[in-house]
Amino acid sequence: MSKTVDILQGAEACAKGAMKAGLSYFAGYPITPSTEIAEMLSILLTKDKKIFMQMEDEIASIVSIIGASLAGAKSMTATSGPGFSLMQEGIGYACMTEAPIVICDVMRGGPSTGDPTKGSQGDVMQARWGTHGDHAMIVICPDSVEEMYYDTIKAFNLAEKYRNPVILLTDETITHMREKVEIDFNEKVELIERKKPVITADKPYLPYGTFDDDVSIIGNLGDGFGTSITGMTHREDGFQSPIPKIGEPLIKRLSRKIEKHSDELFELEIINPNAKTIIVTYGATSRTAKTIIAEGHDEIGLVRLKTLFPLSDNKLIQATKNAERVIVAEMNLGQIFMETKKALACTSTQVELLSKVGGALITPNEMLAFIQEGQS
Amino acid sequence: MKGEKFINPSRIPSIWCPGCGNGIVLHSVLTALEELNYTKDNVIFVSGIGCSSRSSTYTIFDNIHTLHGRAIPIATAIKLVRPDKKVIVMTGDGDSLAIGGNHIIHAARRNIDLTVIIFNNSIYGMTGGQFSPLTPSGKRATTSQFGNIENQFDAMKLLQGAGATYLARIGTYFFTQMTRYIKTALQHEGFGVVEAITQCPVYYGRLNKMATPSDMLLWQKDNLVFKDRLSQSNIEGMDEKLLIGEFVNLNAPSYLQKRKALLERI
Question: Is residue B4 situated within a structural domain?
Answer without folding.
Answer: no
